[in-house]
Amino acid sequence: MTTPELNTPGNAGYGASMPQGNTVPAGPTDDVSFAKSLGVDQTSDTAEKVKDAAQHGIASAEDTMSQLQAKASELTSNLINKVSVDELTAKLEEQVREHPARTLMFAAGAGFLLGRAARK
Description:
A hairpin with a 2-residue loop joins strand 1 and strand 2. It contains 3 helices and 2 strands. The protein has a domain of 37 residues. It is mostly helical. It is elongated, with a radius of gyration of 38 Å. A two-stranded antiparallel ribbon has the order 1-2.
């Protein structure tokens, strides 16, 4: 079995072919530069594909974030509309009347924790 020579006229090496009449200077440097040029071309193409995929991913993430933000805003406004300040006040007053000791202990504990947090 014979191996074709890589640096012969009409054979640019590494499987690429050149039109007849073009000569490729012989030597290992030409093979290396040819291989580098192939690698650079392929790397550029791959980099463009990765860049496009990244831009698509960013756009998709931004769309998703916008949708989530809109949904969270809607849920928050619904919650605020459902909760009435008068209802909360009535429930708190009822809790204090039914369980004054427990409410006082809870208020003292919360005050103690807030006081410690304020000192730091």
